[in-house]
Design a protein that fits this description.
Strand content: under 5%
Number of helices: 6
Bound molecules: protoporphyrin IX containing FE
CATH topology: Globin-like
Number of strands: 0
CATH superfamily: Globins
Distance between the termini: 31 Å
CATH class: Mainly Alpha
Shape: globular
CATH architecture: Orthogonal Bundle
């Protein structure tokens, strides 16, 4: 399920002009991001913690510290992941709770 969510998210980002600014921040090859976000979300949801074990001391905020995230690109990120959550069939209330948590993280990243 996590892999399907992540694949849908990057497929949307890669194909819909509504996410063009966000796409522009990413490398041409999204395959490493598909693996990394799947691994991070697996740990974040309480599963195996490989993402953290492979990056001692890392946190998701520090992973974004050098990326110039604006309110617009943060908004594109939240809209794309919200759409992906719905598209892969994650039901409420889980969908809304996860969506709110993602929006908070993205907002924090855009504020620095
Ligand atoms: C605020 C909006 C966000 C923007 C604009 C953004 C953008 C980016 C960019 C440009 C990269 C590097 C991509 C590359 O090298 O091709 C990245 C990496 C990453 N992002 Fe985000 N991101 C955002 C929010 C988030 C959130 C909320 C999460 C987690 C729920 C997340 C998870 C990740 C992960 C796991 C990586 C890879 C880090 C690594 O491999 O060490 N991002 N992000």
């Amino acid at each position: 399920m996590v892999r399907r969510l992540v694949d849908r998210f990057y497929d949307l980002m890669d194909s819909d002009a509504a996410y063009a600014a966000l796409r522009g921040l990413h490398a041409h090859d999204l395959a490493p991001m598909r693996d990394s976000l799947t691994s991070f979300l697996t740990a974040w949801l309480g599963g195996p913690r490989d993402w953290f074990e492979q990056r001692p001391g890392a946190c998701i905020m520090s992973a974004h510290a050098k990326i110039a995230i604006t309110p617009q690109t943060a908004d594109e990120w939240v809209r794309a992941i919200s759409r992906a959550l719905a598209d892969v069939g994650i039901e409420n209330p889980a969908r809304e709770m996860i969506g709110v948590a993602f929006a908070r993280m993205a907002q924090g990243m855009a504020m620095r």
